[in-house]
Amino acid sequence: MNRKIITVLMLVSVLIGAAGMYAGIHWFDNGPVAAVPSNSLTDSEQAAAPQESPKQIAENMEKIKKAYEIISSRYVEEMEPNELIEGAIQGMVNTLEDPYSVYMDKDTAEQFTQSLESSFEGIGAEVGMQNDKVTIVSPFRGSPAEKAGLQPNDQILKVDEEDIAGLDLYQAVLKIRGEKGSVVKLQIQRPGVQEPFNVDVTRDTIPIETVYSETYEQEGKKVGYIQITSFSQNTGADFKEQLAAIESDNIEGLVIDVRGNPGGLLDQVQIIASELVTQEKPYVQIEQRNGEKQRFFSSITEKKPYEIVTLIDNGSASASEILAGALKEAGGYEVVGDTSFGKGTVQQPLELGDGSNLKLTMYKWLTPDGNWIHKDGVEPTVPVKQPDYFYANPISLDENEELTFDDNNEKVKNVQVMLKGLGFDPGREDGYFSKETENALKSFQSENGIPNTGKVTNQTAEQLQTKLLEAVRSKENDVQLKEAINTLLK
């Protein structure tokens, strides 16, 4: 297998697909990684490590050995020796209470190891563990997960009717992944929504392209726009190429969009930051457990001849936050949108000799000014929310279930938000199915070739979701992008 750069970044676009490329943190081979210290311990790290005497180490190992022998020989049922060893390692990792530090046994590691040169199939979302629940960090733009209405912080409770409580992240992901065209049913618990709901997601191929660009013209001025969907092997080179192309069009401002970008390879952030941030400040700092910091600088001396605005939201995580923080603090540029996700740690893999891996949090990363954004996120300088319908929940109806006049629940409220966002006034948005809501629904059904019943059936719910996604993906309705361009032109 080609292993130029091996990764498990927990981006379910890949992990949940037939190929395991991403997993929320970064795996690198033995090649250099500019923004991350070496896997080998430095003198300062060795000095900071707990100093146990050979006697203490021997006593601790003897205790573990005794526990192993007692359980192996005396437990009421016969146990496989390998299961006890695996359990002991897993127990040590669980003691860390760190959702980003994970142990993978040999079989699991093999299933998740995949070259960045491969193609991918899956649902297209990054997941992580939060409060012992598999949680969506961010769906990829245009992915099956986004089309199905999944949002950051959605918790996955069941997969195809099977409760996944108690499973670790990788075990859960293996149940979600599958072939292109197959459908997985996820039970979702969403913050602010009382009852869990089901979402059917049709797995598909997730494109490997991560950089998209275009040029807008407003008030007689040209504005460049570059969207980065994740930081993969060729993201930095693609960014430089597309930036040069739009710069040749004489742009007078640049919008960099990392909304919904769950992160990726840190060396790719270095390539991009080095194009945009001058050498006066570091674009990122890496802090070791002893508090020692390594600062990483660009080599450029002059800023771009135009202003830059970064777009972020609560699906912007990890490497996206490094870039946003660098542009905000080292570049002095505006950041527009929502507060980002808040992942401020760096993980690296340690092979255990038999094909298994221990992916361990080894460093914190800090912004140019030394801020640790973990769990807090990068704050925008220009806070802007999208319209309410951008955050609407998928409508999940049981078989033969309908929503009708005089119903009063969260599902009706969500229908009302959707209708209003699509231009059909429901009269209210409190969850009560009024006559005004019924009339608005009839108008929507008539306009979309659906039987004009004034009731929400599965057919109507699916059409509402389809039309809403079209509205959400339309640049005309993107309030945050409009504000970013206006900020550039002020």
Automatic annotation (TrEMBL):
SMART domains (alphabetical): PDZ (SM00228), TSPc (SM00245)
CDD domains per UniProt: cpPDZ_CPP-like (cd06782), Peptidase_S41_CPP (cd07560)
InterPro entries in UniProt: ClpP/crotonase-like_dom_sf, CtpA/B_N, PDZ, PDZ_sf, Peptidase_S41A, Peptidoglycan-bd-like, PGBD-like_sf, PGBDSf
EC number: 3.4.21.102
NCBIfam families: prc
Pfam families: CtpB_N-like, PDZ_2, Peptidase_S41, PG_binding_1
Keyword Nuclease: no
Keywords, alphabetical: Hydrolase, Protease, Serine protease
Superkingdom to which the source organism belongs: Bacteria
Protein name: Carboxy-terminal processing protease CtpB
PROSITE patterns: PDZ (PS50106)
GO molecular function: serine-type endopeptidase activity
Family, per entry: Belongs to the peptidase S41A family.
One GO biological process term: proteolysis
All residue ranges annotated as the PDZ domain in the record: 101-183
